[in-house]
C-alpha cells in the first residue's frame, strides 16, 4: 500500500481544491489571510519543484457577501435570490483574485483566473479552447486559479460545487493527482461528527457502490456547497480519468507538502482508468440523477 503513497512524490501535474470554510474565519466570515498566505506559499513551492499546479478555489460568494454586509443570501423570489448570489459572486471574485494576485506576486509567481460552467466542458469547442488555455498557462509556469462562473451560472449550466469542478479540471488537463483540502481528515465509514465509532479509511482501491453510497448520507459545513457526496462524485470523475485523488484536512495547510512527500495522511483514491467514462456526457448529466 505504501508503495502507491511513495509514487505520489513523482506526480508532475497537480490540482488542489480548497473550500470556502477553509478560507474564512468561522466567527466573522472574513478571509483568513494567514491560511491563504500559507496556501499560496505551499503552491509556489510545489511550482518551484518543477511541477505544474492548478488551484480550484471557493470563497467568491462569501467574500462578496461580506463586502456588502449581507448576512444571508435571500430574495422575495427564487430569481431574486439567484441575482443576489450572482451579484455577491461578481464582487467577491474580483476581491478574492486581488488577494491571490498580491500573495502570489510576493513569491514571484504569476496567477491567472479561469471561470468555468458546465458549457465549458459539454461544448466541444469550449472544451478544446479551455484545454489549450490551461496547457499554455502551465507551459508558461503560470498558476491557474479556477472557480465556477457563479456570476452567470444558473441551475441549467452550473456544476454546483468545487469538489466536482476540481475533478473535472483534473480530467480535462490530464493531471496526475487531485488533492481536495476539506474540513475533514478523509473518508470514514460514517460521519465522525455524529458517530464516534466511525472508522477512518486510508485507501480506496476501487470505487464500489458501497463507497459511493457512503457519501450520500453526509453533508459538510454550512458554508460550502459540498459534503462527502460531492467528494465521492469527484473521486468517480478523477479515478475514472486515471487521476489519483486525496482528501485531506485543511486545518494545517502544510499537509500539502507532506502528502507530496508520500506521507500517509488523508484518504487516497487509487486511479483506475475507465475507457467507457465520457467526461462531457457525465458533466451534461450532473444533477439529473
From TrEMBL:
Question: Which residue numbers delimit the Aspartate/glutamate/uridylate kinase domain?
Answer: 12-249
Q: Which UniProt keywords apply?
A: Amino-acid biosynthesis, ATP-binding, Cytoplasm, Kinase, Nucleotide-binding, Proline biosynthesis, Transferase
Looking at its record, which EC class is this enzyme? transferase
Ligand binding (substrate):
58, 150, 162
**Subcellular location(s) per record:** Cytoplasm
Keyword Nucleotide-binding carried by entry: yes
Q: Which residues bind ATP?
A: 17, 182-183, 225-231
Q: Name one GO molecular function term.
A: ATP binding
Biochemical pathway: Amino-acid biosynthesis; L-proline biosynthesis; L-glutamate 5-semialdehyde from L-glutamate: step 1/2
Classification via Gene3D superfamilies: Acetylglutamate kinase-like
- Signal peptide interval: none
Catalytic reaction(s) noted? L-glutamate + ATP = L-glutamyl 5-phosphate + ADP
Can you cite an annotated GO cellular component?
cytosol
- CDD domains tied to this protein: AAK_G5K_ProB
Keyword Transferase included in the entry's annotation: yes
Q: EC number(s) per UniProt?
A: 2.7.2.11
Q: Name one Pfam family in it.
A: AA_kinase
What this chain does, per the record?
A: Catalyzes the transfer of a phosphate group to glutamate to form L-glutamate 5-phosphate.
Kindly give the HAMAP family that the UniProt entry links to this protein.
ProB (MF_00456)
Q: Which family does it belong to?
A: Belongs to the glutamate 5-kinase family.
What protein does this entry describe? Glutamate 5-kinase
Phylogenetic placement of the source organism: Bacteria, Bacillati, Bacillota, Clostridia, Lachnospirales
Which gene does this sequence derive from? proB
